[in-house]
What we know:
Layout: E1 23-30, E2 33-39, H1 47-53, E3 64-72, E4 75-82, E5 87-88, H2 92-104, E6 111-116, E7 119-125, E8 130-136, E9 143-149, E10 152-161, E11 163-169, H3 179-187, E12 198-203, E13 212-219, E14 224-226, H4 230-243, E15 250-253, E16 259-265, E17 268-274, E18 276-283
Parallel strand pairs: 2-3, 4-6, 11-12, 13-15
Antiparallel strand pairs: 1-2, 1-18, 3-4, 4-5, 6-7, 7-8, 8-17, 9-10, 10-11, 12-13, 13-14, 15-16, 16-17
Amino acid sequence: MDDPVIAPRPILRFAQDDLPSMTPYFKVSGSGNDFLALAEPPAEPSAGEIRAWCRRGVSLGADGLFVLRRRGAAAVAMDYFNADGLPADLCLNGTRCAVRLALHLGWGADRVTIETPAGAFAGRAAGEERIAVELPGPPAAPRELEVEAAGGRRHGWAVRVGVPHFVLVLPDGLADAPVATLGPALRHHPAFAPAGTNVNFVHFPAAGGRRRMEIRTYERGVEAETLSCGTGVLAGAAAGLALGAVELPLTVLTAGGFPLEVDARDGRWTLTGDARLLARGELLPEAGRVPPPPAWAGGPAAFG
């Protein structure tokens, strides 16, 4: 007997006039920090849209979103939003990705000035899929601080690199770093109220000869560990310099597996590393229609 012929299901198609509302986007990644990018959108996305689009599994998913607008010859402006939909003054990996996207769009030849709420920075191509951003060093030296959290005294360094960070040094390595437990306890600690803080766990490997650092980060606004955090890398480097544990130039390995390079000259710091363009497409309305996660799922209720 012949196999039955199964009629193919019709493909749902839209007439040109019936196309649903679509939002063009780019998906980018900086050493594991991934972002959605909107280039000169007709309107700013709402906080609810950003939260929905950044939800992993039920929408595209990302650590954050930035809006990029051209400001003239080799100059752009960037507004950055964490995955919770709230704006942040600075995300350095996001800034490096924004520079890469601006150059890809032809808004500069090999370098561009990028304006952020934290200031205007110089960005440039530094090789294939690599971008360097130059910025002023931390406005103040890291401040040694000890707080009570998660049942113990936690000694670290508070430092601001556009956004607040708290750096803890783990001499035995990062494999067992309590990022998921101690990270949120410190992120919301009263010592860092009202804005809270990012939390970085760093290790200075003995084999590194004072020029290597490893880091894991619990990111404020993502409310989870991310694969990389550019401002966290600079915060960890600043703490390492204050301790006399490292010297520049410094190579930093993040959880994403990409090394980032930190250097400084004449009071200005440079962060160099991977910044890649992953995809481009159009967000359909269903990407923005997601339910809030239930409390027992373990995710922050604000997402959704």
